[in-house]
Amino acid sequence: MKYVVIGGDAAGMSAAMQIVRNDSEAEITVLEKGAIYSYGQCGLPYVVGGLIPSTDKVIARSIETFRTKYGIDARILHEATAVDPVKRTVSGVNHETKETFTVSYDRLLIATGASPVLPSWKGAGVERVHVVKTIPDTERLMRHLSSKEVNEVVIIGAGYIGLEMAENIHRLKKRVRIVQRSSQIAGMLDSDMTEALHQEAEQHGVILSLNEHVEAIEAGQVVTSSTAYPADLVIAAVGIRPNTAFLKKTGIHMFENGALIVNDRMETSVPGIYAAGDCATHFHLVKGKPDYIPLGTTANKQGRVAGLNMAGRTRSFKGVTGTSVFKFFNLVAASTGLTEREAKREGVSYQVSAVETKNRAGYYPDASPLRVKILYDPESRLLLGGQAVGERGAEKHIDVLSAALFNNMTIEELEDLDLSYSPPVNSVWDPIQQAARRAR
């Protein structure tokens, strides 16, 4: 059996390894556009900040390991530019030799990931404008940041990458400004959950310029809808787009943003072609339909499921609840399921219960504030989502809520859970159970 995988990172190599383990006769070819395989993109902001000493540390396995130990034909600088589902071939360009290539497949996995969006601002393509997605992106940014002439850094966008980069560039003693088009940072949370994050930015000297649209990037400044800010260096962190444009003529069904629509076996609408990771859709268990929530955890899981099914094993991807977490200076913010904004957009009826509590017994030394919020259906009492923000413990409570969502639990069942308690680590009533008890 000939297997071809397009993309040598999380989803692609998770799939390739499952094929290696489950098909001893497999012939596996991996086509990677870049020159580096299997690395942790989520660790890159911390390389920039110096917490991780080099980009080498985020590489999980080398190309040579895949080639020599596992017998995978792992190619670099091979960009796939076309897929022929009838002939079952992949064509493209070898950027090292400048020659074209064609490989045949019996089963194909699309794991091309996504690329940062760089809007058509005037001046967006100049050298001092950066995105952060790959190791080469990161190394280029670090070279620029090392210049003594770079003092004023403007980050456009206040999502995961924007906030993580703000913290890590602040660590380098640079002056950081975040420009955001909405009235809050961390748009993955409801606005009532972001007050502490705004205060955290202020306490660390990160300037928030909210409700501003970027119009141009000119010499030494970012021009917005209302003013201009000094900028020796600019980071654009305004979102990503699936790398699927080269597949438009294949007949594969696509999501509205170009992500490839897959079933629970990671199969696309075209026989023999699978997709996984940031280029594919992710079934949302609460919404009950395909969604697009590109995260490293999901990419690895989908890749594993795709590889097992490609190799003849039956395994289904159960779906996601949209669980995520990020650190911003001394705070951790986490969420799962629906936010109020999403519930309104989906036309879902909901009620909210929120508590301002402590991460441990209130009488225990150094207990710190923790805000927890849950959404639930007023009729069925089913949990719909939750968010938590605090110095310690937010991720633990959101993980419990994610498991509750996965198992379709009501808030009364949430209250009945036997959760751990000891004064140094939790309250007698866990914060999420405190929120559940207050629900009406």
What does this structure look like?
By secondary structure, the protein is α/β, with parallel strands linked by helices. Helix content is 24%, strand content 27%. The protein is built from eleven helices and 25 strands.
Q: Strand percentage, roughly?
A: 25-35%
Count the strands? 25
Q: Report the uncertain regions.
A: none
C-alpha-based Rg, rounded: 23 Å
Number of helices: 11
Question: Which descriptors apply to this entry?
Answer:
single chain; 440 residues; alpha/beta; five-stranded parallel sheet; 11 helices; globular
Summed up, what is this model?
With 440 residues, the chain is an alpha/beta fold.
Show the helix and strand layout.
Layout: E1 2-6, H1 10-22, E2 27-31, H2 44-48, H3 63-69, E3 73-75, E4 78-84, E5 89-94, E6 99-104, E7 107-110, E8 114-116, E9 129-130, H4 135-145, E10 152-156, H5 160-170, E11 175-179, H6 195-203, E12 207-209, E13 214-218, E14 221-224, E15 228-230, E16 233-236, E17 240-242, E18 273-275, E19 282-284, E20 289-291, H7 296-310, E21 324-328, E22 331-337, H8 340-346, E23 351-358, E24 369-376, E25 383-390, H9 394-406, H10 411-416, H11 431-437
Parallel strand pairs: 1-2, 1-7, 2-3, 7-18, 9-16, 10-11, 10-16, 11-12
Antiparallel strand pairs: 4-5, 5-6, 8-17, 13-14, 14-15, 19-20, 21-22, 22-25, 23-24, 24-25
Helix pairs in contact: 1-7
